[in-house]
Amino acid sequence: MFNDLREDIRVVFDRDPAARTFFEVLTTYPGLHAILWHRLSHGLWRAGFKWLARWSSQLARWLTGIEIHPGAVVGRRVFIDHGMGVVVGETAVVGDDCTLYHGVTLGGTSWNKGKRHPTLEAGVIVGAGAKILGPITLGAGAKIGSNAVVVKDVPAGATAVGIPARILDTEQDRAREAAAKKLGFSAYAVSSDMNDPVVKAIHGLVDHSAMTDRRIEWIVAELKRMGGDAEDEKKDGKTDDRFDPAYLNKIVD
To answer: What is the pTM (predicted TM-score) of this model?
Structure first.
């Protein structure tokens, strides 16, 4: 039990740069509290104490703002960040190393008994406000963008955004995702389908960065072909990053 607790707390430090001390995480992180309480509720549920399990999970909901049905299966090293408004249904399965942000719903689309909630395989990340609905499967390492509504299976390693969610599989999408990673943030939580000028501005910056990178690579290749000595990207072990994050922050404020 204590080994599991230490593992859960280490996960918080790995995925939340705001975490500072062991005591702070143990006493102030509702996502951690909800996971620990769910283990108790789930144990009662499996032992046949259904009402007691539901009462326990209801108490956890009052205290944390996170509702996890005691019948749901939650794996190891699951991290619920912020957590307020998270709902996990009875037949949902959350695999090891998954991350859920606030406002996430793992819900059902049927009133029939049986499997009616999603299955998240290992390492899935679900952005804030996303709704995963029905007995679908999100493959290992899949990423779901903020406010996406997912009603179909998502392949392993894929990124899904939008309403209804679509898989990012075009050349432009892949270039945008790669460029976003270079800039130090992930674009999977931002959909180009969203009618938001800030979102469009961010996409424009990412697309421009990707296009600039391609041009620089072409120029360097041409210089080398003509016998020129292009400077290496790295000097003294440090990357020469000419992108100005302050300018980006000013635009999207």
So the answer is: 0.65
